[in-house]
Amino acid sequence: MEIQNFYTETLKISDTQLVQTLAENSQIKVIKKGDILQHIGSVSTALYFLMKGLLRGFLLDVKGKEVTDCFIYAHGAPVVASIDLGAPSLICIEALEDSELISIPFSVVLPLVCTNMELVTLYNRLLSNSLKMHWENKTALVQYTATERYQWFLKNYPGLIERVNHKYIASFLGVTPVSLSRIRRMVREKLKLK
């Protein structure tokens, strides 16, 4: 029932036959903190949605250093490592907390995306939201100062500063961990003066 409710209440799918098909072919996947859900270059066979927990997407720079690309923390967020469903992963996805996901095989989803208009609309909405978030992230990284990026992070990723290792946040914001620590201290001091 939990899976059916996810499709009707979280994803807002109204087609009862579609919900039944999706629910019958879905399962709950539990991953532990530190586990890798998807490796760079591997091909996923399933589409995932986050039920609870926290994930991080990262890639490697030319020196092999991890660069945090995204955080997945919202209930119902799609967990996709490539824009092309079923293509090799562009990023690695790691659990930062014990997490629970709904998993549905691509072999079930892909034919439905081609035939069910409600699913096409949902896919386009999720893709559009993801693209919007991606561009907001990239704009902040390019146009904001380090302090402004930190303040933007606090506003757009509420509560994550308490849940995520600060080295991952520093990587995401394009600063060193030492710089992030200095920025955090400076922001706290400014707040105390107000």
Pick out its properties:
single chain; 194 residues; alpha+beta; Jelly Rolls; 2 domains; four-stranded antiparallel β-sheet; 8 helices
Q: Count of DSSP helices?
A: 8
CATH homologous superfamily annotation of the largest domain? Jelly Rolls
**Mean of the pLDDT scores?**
92
Strand content: 15-25%
The whole-angstrom Rg is 18 Å
> Biggest sheet: strands, sense, closure?
4 strands, antiparallel
Query: What name does CATH use for the topology of the largest domain?
Result: Jelly Rolls
State the CATH architecture of the largest domain. Answer: Sandwich
Strand line-up of the largest beta sheet? 1-8-3-6
Secondary structure: helix percent: 40-55%
Strand and helix order: HHEEEEEEEEHHHHHH
Question: Tell me, what's the shape?
Answer: elongated
What's the CATH first level of the largest domain?
Mainly Beta
* Strand segment tally: 8
Cα distance, first to last residue?
50 Å
Number of domains: 2
Q: Would you tell me the structural class of the helices and strands?
A: alpha+beta
Low-confidence stretches: none
